[in-house]
Amino acid sequence: MNGKRTEFAQRIEQNSKNYSPRDLFDLETAKIMLTQLRETFGLDTLMTDRHGNILMTIGDFDGFLPDVVNKPGNKIRVKDRTVCHIYAKYDHVAQEEFGAVEKILGAYIKTLENHSEKSYLASEQAVYIEELEQQEREAAQYSGQNDPLTGVLNRNHFISQMKELAEREVVPTAVICVNINDWRFVDNNYGEEESDRLIVTVAGILRDKVRETGLEHAVIGRVEGDVFNVLLPLAEEDEARAYCDAIQQACDSFEDEKLAPSIAVGCVMRTNVEESFKNILSDAEYAMLENKFAIKNAPGYRERLEKGLKNI
Predict the structure, then answer these.
(1) Which residues pair with 219 in a beta bridge?
(2) What is the dihedral of CA 64, 65, 68, 73, to 10 degrees?
(3) 219: which residues sit within 8 A by CB, 6+ positions away?
(4) Do 180 and 263 contact (CB within 8 A), yes or no?
(5) Which residues on adjacent β-strands are paired with residue 88?
(6) How do residues 281-301 score in pLDDT, each as one tens digit?
(7) Is the whole model's pTM more than 0.85, yes or no?
(8) Counting C-beta atoms within 10 Å of the first and last residue's C-beta, which end of the chain has fewer, N or C?
(9) How far apart are CA 62 and CA 56, in angstroms?
(10) Burial classification of residue 56, based on how many CB atoms lie within 10 Å of its CB (0-12 exposed, 13-18 middle, 19 or more buried)
(11) CA distances from 37 to 51, 59, 235 (A)
């Protein structure tokens, strides 16, 4: 809550620079009051925005060029930032009324300033509340579609995305099954926190390599505890193979005192709209299991997996 208050306070201090007088008060109403000062007392006034652009002129200002930097006139400020300037000429004001008119103008400027600040705060508050509500709506939608641990799609939403690709007859599509090797070893020896960290690490690698390889339409889902499925719509086979190589290499090169991420990967191309994703996924899973067997029986695999035991 304190963080939200600080964020809003910072917003209030900074955002007044984005407001013009038109955003803060009714220029026509302001013009009526300044016109009345002209008709009653002979006071000439000219209003500009903060940059010196003229908004209205009441009276005689022929040949006058506002200089808001060196001769800014009367400033109207909101949160210590100038939002507009009012220049006043007393040439037609009676001498005996000069002081009274000056006070009236000062009071009117103060009224405009107070009104501008209230308008500004109300506007910013409304925008901020709407942004927070939008964030909450997006978070609610996100939580319904995404795996809470990793942020990738959950199983149900992954399946719905897969069905959508099938309905749109998107081919080719690479179908990839990814399984974390010996996740259970990590869970048994290092505990749930470290096994969760392993899952999060692998999910991060899957996402990072999607961005790095330019496969921005990839669909990544965590479909079981240590199993991810990845769909690469419109990817050619060499692109899909390159992605698979990249995620495995990233896992193998990951440096950590305990974790030694390793993944088995199976990739099958769906090139015919008549092929069912279910069958393709089954083939990808079979290819993943073959890859898993080869990896777990490779020299040095067990040593790398167990390197963290010496730190327990």
Answers:
(1) 231
(2) 0
(3) 153, 158, 161, 162, 165, 230, 231, 233
(4) yes
(5) 45
(6) 999 999 999 999 999 999 999
(7) no
(8) N
(9) 13
(10) middle
(11) 25, 10, 72
